[in-house]
Design goal:
Blueprint lengths: L1 H12 L3 H11 L7 H14 L3 H13 L6 H6 L10 H17 L6 E5 L8 E7 L6 H8 L1 H4 L3 E6 L2 E4 L2 E3 L3 H18 L2 E11 L1 H11 L7 E5 L5 H13 L6 E7 L3 H16 L4 E6 L10 H13 L8
Parallel strand pairs: 2-3, 2-6, 6-7, 7-8, 8-9
Antiparallel strand pairs: 1-3, 4-5
Helix pairs in contact: 2-3, 3-4, 4-6
């Protein structure tokens, strides 16, 4: 689904709405697990093409299946502006709000664990956090390389639900408490090497990993992140926080796409802050990539783990 979304985004950016809708209609049967995502694309594209009746029908079909869309997403979606005044749209939006409010208190944090063939008495641990709008199961394949190198891999899934099967890390404190609880549970169930815990993540999950590592909110040796996002306020606060309590022997590796303008700026600032505090931080900018996992991400994970454990990481200029 990720590759298909990127393909649709390119058509969308080129304002090829009719072609994008045609692609959605042709391929929708191939994504039975992503019905709400496909429907969301249909509604947006149909609305942009002036097909209001069809867009409302697509919306109703999702509701009839018992699904819903994020109320926050619907409220901000400019592509649906032509639908917003319609009573039918307003009623369906209210149904989404009701379903969201009903399910939100029932959602619990989850943890996906991938074992390693390593038979060491104490295992090193990589905790990898999904990006906003994702979940643990769609994230695990990108980080699995670590298990082949003897690392236990743990993927927390946030309890902060956004869409069906889609979660975010918007509230830092909730995320911190959940990750701490997962780590405590793992320590009870697994023999862990307490000196070899590394945090990883993508996008807002990457920002969560960086924030927790630099703030020493759990004991960690370092972080490996892709396109991390921190707010301007968090970036502004970090230098003073690090000056008052600098982490000992902590290293960080950041990978970001050359076209990922916002996260590239955040990444450069992070490395600048770390180096000003004499903390080893490396940045690798991937040519031509935007806000997504690059094809060589497994290689980056391997290099990042090597850098964190020994000064062997080398970045291209």
């Amino acid at each position: 689904m990720r590759a298909f979304n990127l393909h649709l985004m390119k058509l969308y950016a080129a304002k090829e709405y009719a072609q994008a809708l045609e692609q959605v209609e042709q391929e929708k049967a191939n994504f039975p697990e992503n019905l709400w995502e496909i429907a969301y694309w249909r509604i947006c594209l149909q609305a942009l093409l002036g097909e209001q009746t069809e867009a409302l029908q697509s919306f109703q079909e999702i509701l009839d299946l018992g699904l819903w869309f994020s109320p926050n997403r619907l409220a901000r979606e400019l592509d649906m502006d032509s639908l917003r005044p319609l009573p039918e749209f307003q009623k369906m939006t209210e149904v989404c709000q009701q379903r969201f409010e009903k399910i939100r208190p029932t959602v619990r944090p989850e943890l996906l664990v991938e074992q390693t063939a390593n038979r060491a008495t104490a295992l090193p641990l990589l905790i990898a956090l999904h990006g906003n709008g994702e979940n643990a199961s769609v994230t695990i394949d990108y980080w699995r390389e670590a298990t082949s190198q003897g690392w236990l891999l743990a993927l927390p899934q946030s309890s902060q639900i956004y869409d069906p099967n889609s979660f975010v890390w918007d509230d830092r404190e909730i995320g911190i408490n959940e990750i701490r609880a997962h780590l405590a549970s793992l320590r009870r169930e697994q023999a862990l090497d307490q000196e070899r815990v590394v945090l990883g993540g993508f996008s807002m999950g990457g920002g969560q990993a960086v924030w927790m590592a630099l703030r020493q909110l759990i004991k960690t040796r370092g972080f490996i992140v892709l396109a991390p996002y921190l707010t301007p306020a968090e970036l502004e606060a970090l230098p003073a926080l690090l000056e008052s309590q600098k982490p000992a022997a902590l290293r960080g590796c950041i990978l970001v796409g050359e076209e990922d303008v916002e996260c590239l700026e955040v990444s450069r600032k992070l490395v600048e802050i770390m180096r000003a505090c004499n903390l080893p931080g490396e940045l690798e900018v991937h040519p031509g990539e935007d806000h997504d996992y690059p094809p060589n991400f497994a290689e980056f994970v391997s290099k990042g783990l090597a850098f964190i454990e020994a000064d062997t990481y080398s970045q291209p200029s």
